[in-house]
């Protein structure tokens, strides 16, 4: 049964299907390091440097996690990496701030809708599809080609209300 509050509905579903695992989950063990590494207001370059350090850890759980995370990040489009980091920072900063739309599920969904609409129109989306699914050369030509060349102002535009460009998501 759905209510007017999707956050409440989601909490109810999660409570219904939750259980206590028999052992400590890997995520719980890594969570402090994940939060520290991907903390708000860190640049993508700083995150990658920290992951590189963690990949040298004597703790195999930590080194495996860091190596896998770094490998995934290195495959991403520089613009998308900066966008994702900026978005995560905005959501993290909104946590507990009930006046911020990103502190609620509805606000997060609206923001992700705006980002998805605009990001899908960028050349990087088609280039990623070409490199991975069409030509399968795994060699995308990103625009811009490096993190240093990403314009922050171009990233910020993706967060703005849609205006006359398209209808906002109604949730």
TrEMBL record:
BP GO annotations: L-valine catabolic process
Origin: domain of life: Eukaryota
GO molecular function annotation: 3-hydroxyisobutyryl-CoA hydrolase activity
EC number from the UniProt entry: 3.1.2.4
Alphabetical UniProt keywords: Hydrolase
Nucleotide-binding keyword on record: no
Reaction catalysed by this enzyme: 3-hydroxy-2-methylpropanoyl-CoA + H2O = 3-hydroxy-2-methylpropanoate + CoA + H(+)
Pathway in which the depicted protein is active: Amino-acid degradation; L-valine degradation
EC category: hydrolase
InterPro entries given in the database record: ECH_dom, HIBYL-CoA-H
Residue ranges annotated for the Enoyl-CoA hydratase/isomerase domain, each copy included: 6-159
Keyword Hydrolase: yes
Protein function: Hydrolyzes 3-hydroxyisobutyryl-CoA (HIBYL-CoA), a saline catabolite. Has high activity toward isobutyryl-CoA. Could be an isobutyryl-CoA dehydrogenase that functions in valine catabolism.
Family: Belongs to the enoyl-CoA hydratase/isomerase family.
Protein name from the UniProt record: 3-hydroxyisobutyryl-CoA hydrolase
Organism: Helianthus annuus (Common sunflower)
């Amino acid at each position: 049964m759905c209510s007017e509050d999707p956050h409440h509905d989601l909490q109810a579903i999660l409570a219904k299907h939750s259980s206590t695992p028999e052992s400590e989950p890997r995520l719980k063990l890594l969570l402090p390091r994940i939060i520290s590494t991907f903390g708000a207001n860190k640049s993508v370059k700083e995150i990658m440097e920290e992951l590189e350090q963690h990949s040298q850890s004597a703790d195999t759980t930590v080194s495996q996690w860091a190596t896998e995370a770094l490998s995934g990040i290195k495959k991403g489009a520089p613009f998308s990496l900066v966008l994702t980091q900026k978005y995560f920072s905005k959501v993290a900063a909104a946590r507990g701030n009930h006046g911020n739309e990103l502190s609620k599920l509805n606000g997060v969904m609206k923001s992700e809708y705006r980002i998805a609409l605009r990001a899908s129109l960028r050349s990087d989306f088609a280039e990623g599809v070409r490199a991975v699914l069409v030509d399968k050369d795994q060699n995308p030509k990103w625009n811009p080609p490096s993190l240093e060349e990403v314009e922050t102002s171009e990233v910020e535009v993706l967060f703005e209300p849609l205006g006359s460009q398209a209808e906002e998501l109604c949730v």
